[in-house]
Design brief:
Shape: globular
Structural class: mainly beta
Largest sheet: 7 strands, mixed
Strand content: over 45%
Radius of gyration: 13 Å
Number of helices: 0
Distance between the termini: 41 Å
Number of strands: 11
C-alpha cells in the first residue's frame, strides 16, 4: 500500500511564497515520478510540475520561473516551492506519484492567493 501525505498550503497575498511537501510511504520502487497537480473551482485538474527520480523536471508554462519542484529520494519526499504567487494559482494542490504504471494521489491541500 502506497500513501502520500501532504503538508503546507495556506492563504497568502499575491506576490507571496509557499512551500508544499509530500512524503510517500509504503512499497516504493526507486524508479518513479513524483509531482504536483492542481484543481481550481470549476476547472479540470492540471499538471503543475513533475520530477523523475533522476531529477528531470517538467513544468506547466504558467508556473515556469516562479515554482520549483525538488525531491529528496532518500526521504521519498517531493517539494514545491511557489514564489511570486498570483490569484490564479488558487487551487487545491495534489501530490502525485507514478509507480509501476499506477497513479497515487495525496489528500490535497488548499492554496489561496488573495489579490
Amino acid at each position: 500500500q502506497v500513501q502520500l501525505v501532504q503538508s503546507g498550503g495556506d492563504l497568502v497575498q499575491a506576490g507571496g511564497s509557499l512551500r508544499l511537501s509530500c512524503a510517500a510511504s509504503g512499497r516504493l520502487f526507486s524508479i518513479n515520478t513524483m509531482g504536483w497537480y492542481r484543481q481550481a473551482p470549476g476547472k479540470q485538474r492540471e499538471l503543475v510540475a513533475t520530477m523523475t527520480s533522476g531529477g528531470t523536471a517538467n513544468y506547466v508554462n504558467s508556473v515556469k520561473g516562479r515554482f520549483t519542484i525538488s525531491r529528496d529520494n532518500a526521504k521519498n519526499t517531493v517539494y514545491l516551492q511557489m514564489n511570486s504567487l498570483k490569484p490564479e494559482d488558487t487551487a487545491v494542490y495534489y501530490c502525485w506519484l507514478r509507480l509501476g504504471g499506477l497513479d497515487y494521489w495525496g489528500q490535497g491541500t488548499q492554496v489561496t492567493v488573495s489579490s
